[in-house]
Amino acid sequence: MYQLLPPSRRNRQVDLAEVYAYPGGARRWVRANMVASVDGAATADGKSEGISGEADKRIFGVLRALADVVLVGAGTVRAEHYRPAKVRDQYQAARAAAGQAPTAAIAVVSGLLDLDWSLPLFAEPAVQTIVLTSEAAPPEQVEAATAAGVEVIAAGAGYVDLGLAVDRLAERGLGRILCEGGPHLLAQLAAAERLDELCLSVSPQLRGGDSMRILAGPDLTGGLPLILHTLLTEDGFLFSRYLVGTLSTAKKGESDGGEG
After folding, report:
1. DSSP letter at 77?
2. Please, which residues have CB within 8 angstroms of residue 179's CB and are 6 or more apart in sequence?
3. How far is Cα 190 from Cα 187, in angstroms, rounded to an integer?
4. Which of 40, 76, 115, 185 is 20 to 30 Å from the Cα of 82, by its Cα?
5. How far is Cα 140 from Cα 143, in angstroms, rounded to an integer?
6. What pTM did the predictor assign?
7. Closest among 162, 33, 67, 163 to 109, alpha carbons compared
8. Quick check: 153 and 133 in contact, CB under 8 A?
């Protein structure tokens, strides 16, 4: 994998852990990782698998290895058959030095808690799985989740307040947050003004049809400005790292990005 932007004088494979390092000193940093075809499709037959590739999956693994927690919607958990994050030996020393658990926890956003608690994601995680819900969640489902060993966090009264949910994670020391979607959750995260960074993989294919884009929700008033921070390529894919905000935000990310 090679770096196109910023231009590099070194024609070599990049260190992905270095390129995607979290800004140092930030109590909370929320990045999203999504993949889309050239014509904007975020899924193929309802899943991201059909538009992904080996290089994309490698970045997926690195981003998880750097994160404290992976944020994902219940619908995506069901559609993608989510499993617990893997413990990767090559990252254990760095994670221990950063005070992180052996792997990222998975935090599932669900208002109704209509989930199968016997699945490995809930029953066999290396790090306790979290469910982010509201105070209006069905009590019997909360009890079932707790009995299965899941940590249930209420964020909001009648519905899940995603901004509050992100704050609840940060309060627990889980400030390096990686959102893996789906499109509805990412739209809510952007609308809640909690998104700091977007990592977008562009797959070299056209899909057509009526597939979702990476955001599915109401218009963002005035749009959300993005600054291109990094651009990588391999096998025809483009891997971009955007920072949310102004040029000053981007410069801060450039100065802090290597501190991890």
Report:
1. H
2. 30, 31, 32, 33, 70, 71, 72, 185, 186, 189, 195
3. 5
4. 40
5. 5
6. 0.92
7. 162
8. yes
